[in-house]
Write a structure and sequence with these properties.
Length: about 525
């Protein structure tokens, strides 16, 4: 079952007028374990029926060839009377000329906007800049709703086939920052090569909101960069009128279709970075860099979602956030995290947290590095469903779990190829791996935990386990079966550095089988 929604949108990603390496992150240029084609044809259960996504191409709204030929009318906004020097607002000129089947071109220049352009229930509209910079008015001088430059479609009056690309947004002046684009379309969304310069310090909504309202519709947001983030609303002229402040990219309850974010960049936003709060629809995050947002730098809900080849960093808490997860999955049917790099040298939340009630999760080919504060690498909350964790490395220096599997009623978890390194002590959470769930399998683990204060390897508290082909070198007891039953530990090596046992079985544990292991420090069996 292929990820048809990514494969079908692939033709949108290449801009023939620019080199493919333009506006990419370091993640895009380093050597990946899989080729691009292998990535695009990865599996996501339940998504096989989403394959034939050619409507954008067929409509001609996202092809780069002869762009003007795709529209009945082409408007040069300067020829139409707009001021390209940044002295007068261009919104009145935009209102006079925006229409169905119309492309509005912005030649090189600076274009001042002090009120939003609102256009709904449209068909085939484009806004394309060529060296164009949009300059929003500050909070006090913006007329009307102080939230958006472009409101293109609404949930009850969505548009169809929208192109918005090639703009710099200059919000370097004091108390500027505004939502660049609020786009709600049935199908055919293409937003790309948009860069926001300056910190968002007005306290209004963050740079983008995107919804695909038709379940069969698709959209792509490509190279939308807002690297400077936003300040907390309490530090803005809009203090008291929002909670926390701006979100980077929002996707809300009106999203129904498929939306992909590729090679986007978000700095620290006080609410969330990329935040999909929808209960329906599909979200894909492909590449890009997300950093230091409150609650989570990437936070997803929806029917199905995937995060691939992205980098997430938490090295600062600019908004005094109570928590800053790198990735948080809130609810939905199935999510895949693949080829991701998470670096949190100043942790203030888990690297990956999967919340109740997510049905299924797969995390693979992912590298996680966690600093000295006690925050977990991967945490599955008690009521989440089955999960696969494969080929994951966690380097952890804080006294927390590299892998924390909560809930005796949670789904079974298959863990293979997990590597745990780092100097984490055992002062807060002793074990690198902690599992309360039943029917889990752990194979090919490599756990090296030499931190102080009795740091241990793995603790199993449920039933029906297989732990095989794994190596543990820890400060204290590498393997603990605490009230566990129906456990097989085979072909494992477990060696503590201290005066401890290789394996401990508590008195309330049940049946345990131990074939073909190497336990230099012996077994303590209290049954």
């Amino acid at each position: 079952m292929t990820i048809g929604w990514v494969e079908g949108l692939r033709h949108l990603y290449v801009n023939p007028r620019a080199d493919r390496t333009e506006n990419v992150t370091s993640k895009d240029t380093h050597e990946r374990k899989w080729s691009r084609r292998q990535y695009l044809t990865g599996t996501v259960a339940g998504m096989a029926g989403i394959g034939g996504v050619l409507s954008l191409s067929e409509a001609g709204a996202a092809q780069d060839g002869d762009l003007a030929a795709q529209y009945d009318t082409v408007v040069d906004i300067v020829d139409a009377g707009a001021d390209p020097t940044g002295s007068e607002s261009i919104t009145p000129v935009l209102r006079d000329h925006v229409d169905d089947n119309t492309l509005i071109e912005f030649p090189e220049g600076r274009y001042y906007m002090d009120e939003q352009l609102r256009f709904t229930r449209f068909e085939n509209v484009g806004f394309v800049g060529d060296g164009a910079t949009l300059v929003p008015a500050n909070f006090h001088e913006f007329e009307g709703p102080q939230y958006r430059l472009f409101r293109l479609g609404t949930s009850d009056r969505p548009g169809r086939n929208l192109r918005f690309e090639g703009f710099d947004i200059d919000q370097t002046a004091s108390e500027t920052g505004i939502r660049v684009i609020n786009a709600e379309v049935e199908d055919g969304l293409l937003v790309r090569h948009v860069t926001v310069h300056g910190v968002h310090d007005s306290g209004t909504w963050g740079p983008g909101l995107f919804n695909i309202t038709d379940p069969e519709g698709e959209g792509l947001v490509y190279c939308f960069h807002a690297p400077d983030g936003a300040v907390h609303v309490d530090e803005t002229p809009n203090a008291g009128n929002m909670w926390r402040g701006a979100t980077g990219f929002g996707i809300n309850q009106h999203h129904r279709g498929t939306l992909v974010f590729e090679n986007c960049i978000l700095g620290g936003f006080p609410d969330n970075g990329l935040y999909a709060s929808n209960e329906t629809g599909r979200i894909g995050v492909d590449g890009g860099h997300y950093q230091n947002s409150g609650t989570a730098s990437i936070r997803l809900s929806g029917t199905t979602g995937a995060i691939r080849n992205a980098t997430i960093t938490v090295n600062d808490d600019p908004h005094d956030s109570a928590g800053q997860h790198a990735i948080r999955i809130d609810r939905g049917e199935e999510f895949h995290i693949e080829g991701v790099e998470i670096d949190i040298p100043e942790p203030n939340g888990d690297a990956i947290r999967v919340m109740n009630p997510v049905d299924e999760t797969t995390i693979s080919n992912t590298e996680i590095s966690i600093g000295a504060q006690p925050n977990n690498g991967i945490r599955l909350d008690p009521e989440t469903g089955p999960a696969i964790i494969d080929d994951v490395t966690v380097d952890i220096d804080g006294s927390a779990n590299a892998l924390r599997l909560l809930g005796s009623d949670g789904g079974a978890v298959d863990v293979s190829g997990l590597r745990v390194t780092g100097d984490a002590p055992g002062t807060t959470l002793r074990h690198a791996i902690f599992c309360e769930r039943h029917s889990c399998e752990f194979t090919g683990l490599d756990v090296e935990q030499h931190g102080t204060t009795r740091r241990r390897g793995i603790e199993l508290r449920g039933s029906d386990y297989r732990l095989a082909d794994s190596e543990f070198e820890t400060t204290d007891t590498p393997i603990v079966l605490n009230g566990a039953s129906d456990v097989t530990v085979e072909n494992c090596y477990a060696n503590p550095a201290s005066d401890a046992y290789s394996l401990r079985i508590t008195g309330d544990s049940g049946g345990v089988q131990l074939p073909a292991n190497d336990f230099p420090a012996g077994v303590r069996d209290d049954r």
